[in-house]
Amino acid sequence: MTDKEMLDAEQLGQIFAVLSEHVPKLLDNVTKVLYGAQEGTKFGESVAAFYKALNDAGMSKDQAFELTKEYMSNLSLGGMLKNIVGGASKQDE
């Protein structure tokens, strides 16, 4: 390895160290803002209303449950990030 490559590897290591320290805290704070008590209640009500609407429309409980799980995933922070990252990698192909 050349000195430049070694320096780049060291810098990359430092960048990852900083990211691993700060990103979890940032995500935790964002999650608290998005899913505080009031937001959690609204999220639960939204999911329950979605499930009830599917049942009222005549869908089986199993089908309604699976679609509700997908709906919840799409509304969650983790689901949003997964879709963003998944969409970005599909564009790269």
Structural class: mainly alpha
Extract low-pLDDT stretches.
Answer: none
Rounded Rg: 20 Å
**Rounded average pLDDT:** 82
- The arrangement of helices and strands along the chain is HHHH
Share in β-strands: under 5%
Helical coverage, percent range: over 70%
Structural summary, described in words:
It is a single chain. The chain is elongated, with a radius of gyration of 20 Å. It is built from four helices and no strands. With 93 residues, it is an all-alpha fold. It has a domain of 61 residues. Helices cover 89% and strands 0% of the residues.
Describe the secondary structure blueprint for this structure:
Blueprint: H1 3-34, H2 37-56, H3 61-75, H4 77-92
Helix pairs in contact: 2-3, 3-4
Could you write a compact summary of the structure shown?
The chain is an all-alpha fold and 93 residues long. It has a domain at 33-93.
